Amino acid sequence: MTQNDNQQAEWHAQAPVEEQTAHPRPPSREEGKKDFVPYLISWNLTQRCNLRCKHCYINASTAMPGELSTDEALRVLDGIAEVGPGALLILSGGEPLLRPDLDVLVAGDVDDALVSATDRIIADFCKEFGDVETAMPIVKHQFTKAGVDVKEPTKDALLRALHALAEIEHGYKSDERVSENLTRRSGWVRKAN
Ligand code: SF4
Question: What residues form DSSP beta bridges with 61?
């Protein structure tokens, strides 16, 4: 080993891992677990869908063999509640409404009608927007401005937020569609206890 080799070996032994490679190393499984706090979980409940959109990223049509039973899905919900108790859960698909047990799954997960309405509004806005990652900060910002506390929302604050979200949707949707969205979401809030 030359003197130069010795110096290089010493440098590698002392330098932090990030300095030794062009790219920082990914966290280990244990480090990842420690830092991981899910804030949004999107769950494709089924591959069934009554539409056939050309852009569909999962080619949804019929149920996938081995889709979860109600009991299995409820166990998954328990697991989600354990690892991400504050996370927003989006039930997606396919078309989740085609699962005959959807009411059971939703009732098992949400026990407050206004909180449930809030989750539906967020999921609905994200779905209409078409890009959850971009839509979520928009919803959060508008909810904050309207005074919506997602853990204890009030009807007044939610209705204010709905009008703010409608203003945003006016930028990229037809008046008719914006009105439909506002009416549908307002109905969820007004029906909540
Ligand atoms: S899952 Fe969504 S994108 Fe796919 S076919 Fe159904 S509605 Fe269209």
Answer: 48
